[in-house]
From TrEMBL:
Name of protein: 3-dehydroquinate synthase N-terminal domain-containing protein
Residues of the 3-dehydroquinate synthase N-terminal domain: 1-102
GO MF: 3-dehydroquinate synthase activity; oxidoreductase activity
Database matches in InterPro entries: DHQS/DOIS_N (IPR030960)
Amino acid sequence: MKKLWVNAVPYNKEITIAALESGAEAVVLPDGDSEKVRQFGKIKTVEKSGDIRPGVDVEFIDIAGKSDEDKAAAVPKSKIVVLRMLDWTIIPIENLLARRAKNIMV
């Protein structure tokens, strides 16, 4: 299943509204900004006090090499893993899908 999260860090009202209007599942925000977004409509927020909490429900991992891939694969399967690729000459997605099978976002 494909899901769309929009990164609004630093906070940007126009991007947040566009995410809501486009049907995004969630918007990633600076800590403490969930209430700003809830006034515009119903959308999940990703921040320390949001609906989806980094470190609790989701892990954001930068991928630059094999050790980062191992770190991502070791995250409990109950958590969502969001990957940021720092070096596109290394494409670990296939490996991670084989090891985790679900809850990976790039």
